[in-house]
Design a protein that fits this description.
Two copies of one chain form a homodimer.
Chain A (H helix, E strand, L loop, with lengths): L6 H12 L3 E5 L14 H15 L5 E4 L1 H5 L3 H13 L5 E8 L3 H14 L4 E4 L5 H4 L9 E7 L6 H4 L2 E2 L2 E2 H12 L4 E5 L6 H8 L5 E3 L9 H7 L5 E5 L1 H4 L7 H18 L2
Parallel strand pairs in A: 1-2, 1-10, 2-3, 3-4, 4-5, 5-8, 8-9, 9-10
Antiparallel strand pairs in A: 6-7
Helix pairs in contact in A: 2-4, 2-12, 8-9
Chain lengths: 268, 268
């Protein structure tokens, strides 16, 4: 709090501190809590705190996905607020929320994420154009990762539409690069061959959030390569937090996080 | 609860019961609470309940926008849950949330909106393609309004991209019409000349949610005309809930709602 450091610098500093691009996705499902953790909002908070404690010298960022908390109602949003508090202040707390609305509503979402909940960064969806993104990009010390090319199977239906002689997702990357080089980032999935290179070429220096490694089948190589031209976060959720469903879940998460961070180092 | 009536029929029934397409947007801002209402989450809930009571024989639907509640943190989400409970069961409770994520996350959002909070319908954003929409469209008695052409100034930057020889927003309307004729709807802004006709032509019979009337400058004519070929909700937020900032706010809201509903009837 109160730090005037630019978001891109905070992110780079966190990555350097752990020598890793690892972003741990905190997507807890009540029905998948390991042995010994109660299937309640309080249990989920305990689980998240243990995950953070087990990986905080390995992960550069933590990324709770809002959907998993909202499914528990207002108590789940309380868990989200407390989870954010448990993330060390020298790591990046990134809310995966894919928000995006008309100007005055986006302004309220930015207030919710940055002021009320205190997150460092958020993912946002560009379907409503530039106006919907601006409220998330007005704070030099906070970041917004705009969806460009997502990792899911049907992403191309919309993202491969054409505009101005290029694919929509490349046009979004250009638009974001043009809007702001300080606190805007882009989301590009590791599952789409070539997409990381394309987005990186359109937006050199811009932070990238790369999902799709592991369970979704994406490869590390291009993701790590993109880090040579600007900060990169490579996300893993289920592969880490559900590494074991037994009482050794925290050790197993630590081991999985460590192995993935090592694989990233080797892929440089 | 427990009703097996299809969403499109529930919506048509609600519209017929009040003889109006009016959807009241419940976007309460702590800083704009009228005289006599405390600027607290409890105050906002009281305000919403009075708005609903004042308009429930005029409005076919109520549409809280999640951003305004999330800005108040988990207590705001509690207000949202209680606001939903205050909406009569024979009116449509529509959450304006513009959600959309990869499959398993969208599944959690659908659970949050329909099961945990009990809304009848939700707005969803199509940037991630069909897979991200399916979890919202699997319940015949609940509806999902997919963003097609939104009412804000920069919407065209993305929505006018081209795919399959047409604008993206028309392609989205085609996709949604093809996916489901029972519980899928579309959002199309009244501010874009011609867009309502285009979307209606691509998706005859599909429910439309039309924002952009009033403060945003859209006209009633094309919106009302679209109701001849399928159910339509025409939204007004600020023009109703902030009709007066004095202690007569509930009467003023009722009058504004009544006048708008009358204008809709005359525009038929």
């Amino acid at each position: 709090m109160g730090s005037a450091m630019r978001f891109v610098d905070r992110l780079s500093k966190s990555i350097a501190a752990v020598d890793s691009y690892l972003c741990v996705g905190l997507d807890p499902d009540l029905s998948r809590m390991p042995e010994g953790i109660p299937r309640t909002p309080e249990g989920v908070l305990e689980f998240n705190i243990r995950m953070i404690d087990a990986t905080k010298d390995i992960a550069a960022a933590y990324k709770p996905n809002a959907a998993f908390y909202e499914a528990m109602g207002h108590q789940g949003v309380w868990v989200l607020e407390e989870t954010r508090r448990a993330i060390p202040s020298d790591r990046i707390a990134l809310l995966d929320a894919k928000r995006g609305d008309i100007g005055n509503s986006s302004q309220k979402y930015a207030e919710a994420v940055f002021d009320t909940m205190g997150f460092d960064a958020v993912t946002v969806s560009p379907y409503l154009g530039r106006e919907s993104l601006i409220p998330f990009l007005e704070r030099p010390d906070r970041g917004a990762f705009v969806l460009s090319r997502t990792s899911n199977p049907t992403a191309g239906e919309v993202q491969k539409a054409h505009t101005g002689g290029m694919s929509l997702y490349v046009a979004i990357a250009n638009m974001v690069a043009e809007m702001d080089g300080v606190n805007a980032g882009l989301v590009v999935g590791a599952t789409v061959p070539g997409a990381i290179d394309e987005v990186r070429a359109a937006a050199p220096g811009i932070p990238l959030l790369i999902p799709g490694i592991g369970a979704q089948g994406g490869e590390l190589g291009p993701a790590v390569k993109a880090a040579a031209q600007g900060p990169v976060l490579i996300n893993s959720s289920r592969g880490i937090i559900y590494a074991s469903s037994g009482t050794d879940y925290a050790d197993a998460a630590r081991k999985a996080a460590w192995n993935l961070a090592e694989d990233m180092r080797k892929a440089r």
